[in-house]
From TrEMBL:
Keyword ATP-binding set for record: no
Source organism superkingdom: Bacteria
Organism: Algibacter mikhailovii
Keyword list, A-Z: 2Fe-2S, Iron, Iron-sulfur, Metal-binding, Oxidoreductase
SUPFAM superfamilies per UniProt: 2Fe-2S ferredoxin-like, CO dehydrogenase ISP C-domain like
GO molecular function, one term: oxidoreductase activity
Protein name: Oxidoreductase
């Protein structure tokens, strides 16, 4: 058994310890807001917060997550909720598939740096790909949130 703390709740899961966290979150626990994009650590769709920092859950074996505080897009933290509000105001998503990962990366950035520069926003958000090209609105929503 592996014990995971996700969105403030403990979950005991009986799975292969090498299973990626992404599949445990989605298929075993049922938080489906975290998305599968590439499965190779390249697109950022699967981002979750681990102790406040964004990680690619498709690349993290579930056994490495014991004792960590995991937050998904369904979780509630001050920065995540403020960004979600700003996202809605700026009407950011188009198809929406990548947006939970985008929001998690933005949350991680604000957790570590509450007032990022334009260059820092660009650098941090380069971890996430959006096929609809919503980058301008994403940056606008982040800037609005930190103003
Ligand atoms: Fe994990 Fe693309 S699905 S980085």
């Amino acid at each position: 058994m592996i014990t995971l703390k996700i969105n403030g709740k403990e979950h005991e899961v009986d799975v292969d310890p090498t299973m990626p966290l992404l599949w445990v979150i989605r298929d075993i626990i049922g938080y489906t807001g975290t998305k599968f994009g590439c499965g190779k650590g390249l697109c950022g769709a699967c981002m979750v917060l681990m102790d406040g920092n964004a990680v690619n859950s498709c690349q993290m074996p579930v056994s490495a997550m014991e004792g960590k505080e995991i937050i998904t897009i369904e979780g509630k933290t001050e920065n995540l909720q403020a960004l979600q509000k700003s996202w809605a105001e700026f009407n950011v998503p188009q198809c929406g598939f990548c947006q939970s990962g985008q929001l998690i990366t933005a949350t991680s950035m604000l957790n570590n740096n509450p007032n990022p520069s334009e260059a820092e926003i660009n650098g941090n958000m380069s971890r996430n790909i959006c096929r609809c090209g919503t980058y301008t609105r994403i940056k606008g929503a982040i800037k609005h949130c930190v103003e």
